[in-house]
UniProtKB/TrEMBL annotation:
Residues 86-168 form the GHMP kinase N-terminal domain. GO terms for molecular function: galactokinase activity. It is an enzyme of class 2 (transferase). SUPFAM superfamilies: GHMP Kinase, C-terminal domain (SSF55060), Ribosomal protein S5 domain 2-like (SSF54211). Its EC number is 2.7.1.6. Substrate binds at residues 30-33, 214. The record marks 24 as: Transition state stabilizer. It is found in: Cytoplasm. Keywords: ATP-binding, Carbohydrate metabolism, Cytoplasm, Galactose metabolism, Kinase, Magnesium, Metal-binding, Nucleotide-binding, Transferase. Pfam families: GalKase_gal_bdg, GHMP_kinases_C, GHMP_kinases_N. Mg(2+) binds at residues 118, 150. Catalyzes the transfer of the gamma-phosphate of ATP to D-galactose to form alpha-D-galactose-1-phosphate (Gal-1-P). This is Galactokinase. It comes from Nonomuraea angiospora.
């Protein structure tokens, strides 16, 4: 394993443990996690591998195969910046339970594709430290700790979806997660058995204002819930009555969250019935709602979704936070080439940078490699 070789070359001995944690795509349930709602992500085959040996002092030495050079030495949690924040944040959340460590990181999550490389990094490091120090944390506790690192240390007010997907997913399954109770269920997702494939269309675009807009959406949802007198938008039962009490953006955001939670449940119903190709219509509806009600799409994502459907996809939608990143398309295997052609052609027509295509099946969540 090349991360072990890099560890040995930098620190002079083999690492005590090596853990891998994956990125994710979200099949449906977008922006619902921080509204106490439902999500249905699955892990992708790309992820982050962390090789770690604990130290007896509080120094963290860090190297990444994706950031060549000498290991970065971090003597105090205040010193971290850039990608190292995701690692140091995990140490900060573990507090007195751990000391420092020597760490080598290797990642193959396509950068900027919105496939949660940061959650993969947090969960790989947290899982390895949990193992090394015998902390006894469950995968969900690892996810919560990683989310807290991102919220409190990195300053990104994300929900629990990405970290939970990275920590809990099972191969061949999507993860149905109730983000309030944190109860989860693995839902079998065998697309190949239905002649289908999941195509990821990476727009290769990440709009700069994405983080600010994310925080704004979250605040709008919280404000709408306060006005409606419910703990979270998940608790809205009478949508028409709720919409009557709201105006402007808060009205639109509420419309999206309430209908999106229903779409997650409907999609699970279709999967259970074996009507896998039929989930395409729900993917399309989710995208329209994210575009028009939640307003987190982008021209590149909209063109990808429209062109994918035109080229023969059963359905398509943006996945993840939005404002760039990736769309997913559910494509009959024999239509993959025509869908890619359709999207590539539409991108050229719009003068967009060519997208990157990846296909994926549901992969395994965090696990120990050595
Ligand atoms: C980002 C966040 F990190 C998740 O918590 C989730 O809110 C997602 O956007 C939108 O569904 O990936």
């Amino acid at each position: 394993m090349r991360v072990v070789e890099a560890f040995r070359a930098a620190y002079g001995a083999a690492p005590q443990t090596v853990w891998r944690a994956p990125g994710r795509v979200n099949l449906i349930g977008e922006h619902t996690d921080y509204n106490d709602g439902f999500v249905l992500p699955f892990a992708v085959p790309w992820g982050v591998t962390a090789a770690i040996t604990p130290r007896t002092d509080d120094t963290i030495r860090l190297l990444s195969l994706q950031a060549p050079g000498e290991p970065v030495t971090i003597a105090s949690h205040d010193q971290s910046a850039g990608w190292t924040r995701y690692v140091v944040g995990v140490f900060a959340m573990l507090g007195e339970r751990v000391r420092g460590a020597d760490i080598a990181i290797d990642g193959d999550v396509p950068q900027g594709a919105g496939l949660s490389s940061s959650a993969a990094l947090e969960v790989a490091v947290a899982s390895a430290l949990n193992d090394l120090h015998g902390l006894g944390l469950t995968p969900m506790e690892i996810a919560l700790l990683s989310q807290k690192a991102e919220n409190d240390f990195v300053g990104m007010p994300c929900g629990i979806m990405d970290q939970a997907a990275s920590a809990l997913c099972q191969e061949g399954h999507a993860l149905f997660l109730d983000c309030r109770s944190l109860a989860s269920r693995n839902i079998p997702l065998d697309l190949a058995a239905h002649g289908l494939s999941m195509l990821i269309i990476d727009t290769q675009v990440h709009h700069q204002h994405a983080d600010g807009e994310y925080a704004k959406r979250r605040a709008e949802c919280e404000s709408a819930a306060r006005k409606l007198g419910v703990p979270a938008l998940r608790d809205v039962t009478d949508l028409a009555a709720a919409l009557d009490q709201l105006q402007g953006d808060e009205r639109k955001r509420t419309m999206h969250i309430v209908t999106e939670n229903h779409r997650v449940e409907a999609l699970i119903g279709l999967l259970r019935a074996g009507a896998v190709a039929e989930i395409g219509a729900l993917l399309n509806a989710s995208h329209l709602s994210l575009r028009d009600q939640y307003e987190v799409s982008s021209p590149e994502l909209d063109v990808a979704v429209e062109a994918a459907v035109k080229g023969g996809a059963r359905g398509a939608r943006m996945t993840g936070g939005g404002f760039g990143g990736s769309a997913i398309a559910l494509v009959p295997v024999d239509r993959l080439a025509s869908v890619e052609e359709s999207v590539t052609g539409a991108y050229a027509e719009h003068g967009f940078q060519a997208p990157r295509f990846l296909t994926t099946t549901p992969a395994r969540g965090a696990h120990r490699l050595a």
